[in-house]
Amino acid sequence: MPARYSPDTIGFLIADTARLLRAEFDRRTDAAGLGLTPAEARTLSHVARVGPVRQAALAERMGIEAMTLSACLDRLEAQGYVQREADPSDRRAKLVDTTEAAGPALDQIFAVSAVMRADMTEGLDAGKVEELRQMLIAIRRRLVAMRPDCAKGSAPGSAQGSPRGNVQESIAQ
Description:
2 domains, 3-stranded antiparallel beta sheet, 3 strands, globular
């Protein structure tokens, strides 16, 4: 008889929840008529949260290939929503950030996200939802600290820190 493995371990639950969350976000942003593809909306949202950020770090953070991200950024740049500039610390690398023109689109994206969060937590105790959020922040911080390229004990800032933090934090968020 084959061994049975629980689908309800924390890793599987987080992965399944993330997959379902992304699919629902994509469905809702597509239906919202933003003039952006779901991938563009996701990318713009990530840049707004952590930019300016190196393209390579953004691709890793989003879990996509650099070439896929580059094509998406090309479209967002053509719409005037993002700008890419040489990284002053490494002129071969590009930093991506949002422009002022992205503001209205981001407002719509974040409104869609807020409604989705309210829908997915409906009926749950607000205090427990916040507790879960804080636990996930702590888990993320520990996972970042485990990375070989992250010095032990120097996980990025606190949960209260700026969402537009350093590159290592950008990858983890």
